[in-house]
Amino acid sequence: MSPEFPEEPVDGFPTPPRTITDREGREIDLTEADATDLESLVEMYLAFDPKDRAQGIPPTGEDAIREWLELLAAEDSLHVVAYHDDDAVGHVMLVADREERYELAIFVLQPYQGAHIGTELVRTGLGLAQARGIEFVWLSVERWNEAAVALYEKIGFETTGSASFEMEMALRLEQ
Amino acid sequence: MRVLVGVDGTDHGMHALDRTIERAQEAGDEVTVAVYTADDSSLDDVEASVRDRLETASFEAGVERITEDPGSRLIELAEDGGYDRIALPGGQRSPLGKIQLGGVLEFVLLNARTTVTLVR
After folding, report:
1. Do A164 and B95 count as a contact with CB atoms less than 8 A apart?
2. Whose CA is closest to A102, among B5, B119, B94?
3. Number of domains making up chain A
4. Average pLDDT across chain B, whole number
5. Is residue A6 assigned to a domain?
6. What range defines the domain where residue A166 resides?
7. What ipTM score was computed for the predicted complex, to two decimals?
8. Gap between the Cα atoms of B118 and A54, Å rounded
């Protein structure tokens, strides 16, 4: 169920690996993830506050988290992880739908929220997607989550779907 | 209890139908199946699969065809027909695992006076 996509493509996203300094002065490494990042991500999601779950993800409980993280090994999926020293503190994922358009979601561990890591993770994930020749990216967000909606808009996503509880947003990457 | 189950042509729709039949066979519910399409699939095909399912389960139920605006038609059917409950499929997930309620379910949840059950 892909939404409509904006006419105007967006460009200028950075690719991983890169290191940023967040608003708290922490050095954060953004790297493309593969199966070797699994244990770090399990740790991160075990520490994730359930109040920040969105539409049922991340799941709670180690078994459900591991099952969900099988997406790391899935074809047609891209992942960038934010590391502070050796700890995973953020994760952006893009997973293809049946129409080969990519759904995006992002998670940042609570002590690292509000420090600009989320924005840079999404931008870096989009840079990786662009480098892989992906044109269409979409996401859904609970419409009361104003901080997330503002973040996505700043990056260039446009609101496309208007179902009542969730809002769909989409972005076309410059090819 | 009188149950109106909404079934679109998806696997989730058929799952909702199966669960409603199972429960009805245990509890003696009277069931009406309202069929509609979730996308461009054919309503005849959905109705045929539903009738096939009912026959396989040896279960008698009325079948209503909804050709447009499934959300509001479901509510109208439930209220006019004095049903006790609307059952709807509600287990869809996006590619990366987000729960998706879908427009029909959202409309029914927000607008129905009837109790609504999500079948997952």
Report:
1. no
2. B94
3. 1
4. 93
5. no
6. 18-172
7. 0.78
8. 19
